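Thread title: Can someone regenerate the structure for this chain?

I was given the following input by a collaborator and told the matching structure tokens would be attached. They weren't. Posting the sequence so someone can regenerate them.
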Amino acid sequence: MSFDLIDDSAKLSRLLDVLEREPRIALDTEFHRERTYFPRLALIQVAWGGGIAVIDPLAVDIQPITRIFGDANLIVLHAAQQDMDVLAHAVGRVPARMFDTQIAAGFLGFSTPSLASLVNAQLKIALPKGDRLTDWLRRPLTDGQLAYAASDVEHLLELHDRLCSDLSERGRLVWAEDACEELRTRKTGPGDPADAWLKQKDLRGMKPRTRGILASLAEWRERRAMASDIPPRQVLPDLALHGIAQRDPSSLGELGQARGVDDRHTRGSIGPEILEAVARGRDRRADLPASDGEELDRHLRPAITLVSAWISEVARTNDVDTVLLATRNDIVSLLRRDNDARLASGWRFDLVGLQIEDLLAGRSGLSFDGRGGLRLISAATEPLDNGV
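Best answer:
Regenerated them for you:
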């Protein structure tokens, strides 16, 4: 496999002149975020009908890559969610058109396959194995490392052709494209710092005052980590968050006695900042979000299990990844009659929407089919169709 290394602005400009005329471009990224708050882009790999290139964003301003993020170019990726986050942070936008081969494969009986397993299954090609622990930010990269990175896009366009052909034969290409658009338009980047506390453990067992202090501390930690571009745990470990919230300190001396706190947390400006966050938290109301089903009328809560069982059966018999068809939150949203419930429109409604309505209205029920599966039965116990 041959590829070009793009490590100066002139090479990048010439490459983009070529890519802008291409209807499809395969793309992948390499990045790290272990030592930073935001992901650090290390490489961008692209492939098109005429070649493969590896772009070094540490050697060249990568912002011009957005020239190929318009409507004229379809960007083909695999497992694109993290790539979307990385690109949004690095250049401020994501492609206007995107196709995710992992999502597409979910409509053909695959369950979140790796690129290697999907290429092997669909194209009978074994991708080279590389060092998963490669430090992509280290320079110089070896020829072997660059070749391994390039192999991630080498077969993506051929894979795209195969998947689109199979999806079209089954009448599911539009489903896959809709699911890819859902991913493309999903919010990227970090969440609201005010919600950082919800990631902590054992929240339900805490007293309201302790939970309020923890929520305030977690928000402070998140904002400081963002400002310094370091992982939150390097600002203050989780153990210290919980220890401080439990102790509720009013002085640096008391802060120093909290579990998980060491000298660096009481010196300089950080100690007073922690105490200020604790003070804010004493009066903070930190209500836990309702668990799945708690916001439903009590008589509808058993329907979550019933509908979930049927969705799993429909996904199995129709070779659709259950995660793509519906999550538990999707089911709750439908039962609440939310205006934006995903199961109430589009391909999901076409596949299971009417059947769920029949279940909820009592016009049908579930029965074992005698072969390890489920079937819908009408009030007259007549089997109803469970597929398309």
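Residues 49 and 373 are 45 Å apart (CA to CA).
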